[in-house]
Amino acid sequence: MTEPVCVISGVGPGTGSALARRFARGGYRVAMLARNGQRLNELAGQLPESKAYVCDVSDGAQVEATADKIERELGVPTVLVHNAFGGAFRSFLEIDPAVLNRNFQINTMGLLYLARRLAPAMISAAQGNIIVTGNTSALRGRPFFAGFAPTKAAQRILTEAMARELGPKGVHVAYIIIDAVIDVPWTRERFKGKPDDFFIKPAAIAEEAWHLIQQDRSAWSFNVELRPYGENW
């Protein structure tokens, strides 16, 4: 097994699948993590060098067991893309505190579990990449985002702490802020009538993640913001 290995969490029909396709096309063996095994297996059938791993990243024990299996079957990962996502959109007066906690476990603790397990090998090799997909909620709180924004803000701060610690050790850590509505079937239905250029393409997000792992060490990015050209920001 000479091909490099990439772990991608939260492989769903949008950004996660696009990331898996881009890294597979770039020559990586891709370990695809999600809770939906059927969808993962369908995608794995289209990407011969990739494998599906059913894993709830909010469960530290599952992350440990899955990482062990990935190393046995594919090799030691040199890239981690944390794309798993938990969201809820209600007023802070209405949100069930358990929902906020669940989203925190996926968005922030999932990153912590994955990074703690995979980063040591990257540190030993003095190279590697950890990329996290986030969004504008990581930078500001808005009405009806109380069940979501706090978890993304915590996620971004954790990523920054990791970047400052791991950068001098040769491991590049970056956070992608997606300031847009991602183009997937359910968002097309919700924003019916919006033009194509209102949405951000999952493949374009994946291309930026690919670009980040190619950056020269003399010019590493941390905060990267992506938005359609017509987005009001």
Short key terms for the protein model shown above:
Rossmann fold, seven-stranded parallel β-sheet, two-stranded parallel ribbon, 233 residues, alpha/beta, single chain, 18% strand
Average per-residue pLDDT, rounded, comes to: 94
Counted by DSSP, the helix tally is: 7
Structural class: alpha/beta
Superfamily at the CATH H level? NAD(P)-binding Rossmann-like Domain
The CATH class is Alpha Beta
Strand order of the largest sheet: 3-2-1-4-5-6-9
> How would a textbook summarize the main sheet?
7 strands, parallel
Corresponding CATH architecture: 3-Layer(aba) Sandwich
Question: Order of helices and strands, N to C?
Answer: EHEHEHEHEHEEHEHE
Strand percent estimate: 15-25%
Domain tally = 1
Name the shape in a single word: globular
* Unreliable runs: none
Q: How many strand segments?
A: 9
Q: How far is the N terminus from the C terminus?
A: 45 Å
CATH topology: Rossmann fold
Rg over alpha carbons: 17 Å
Q: Give helix % range.
A: 40-55%
Question: Would you write up a description of this structure?
Answer:
This protein starts with a strand and ends in a 7-residue tail after the last strand. The radius of gyration is 17 Å and the shape is globular. The longest helix has 29 residues, at 97-125. Helix content is 43%, strand content 18%. It contains 7 helices and 9 strands. The chain has a single domain, classed as NAD(P)-binding Rossmann-like Domain (Rossmann fold), CATH 3.40.50.720. Helix 5 links the parallel strand 5 and strand 6. Strands 3-2-1-4-5-6-9 form a 7-stranded parallel β-sheet, with helices on both faces. A two-stranded parallel ribbon has the order 7-8. It is of the alpha/beta class and 233 residues long. The protein has helices at residues 15-25, 37-46, 60-73, 97-125, 149-166, 185-190, 202-214, and strands at 5-9, 29-34, 51-54, 79-82, 128-135, 171-178, 181-182, 199-200, 223-226.
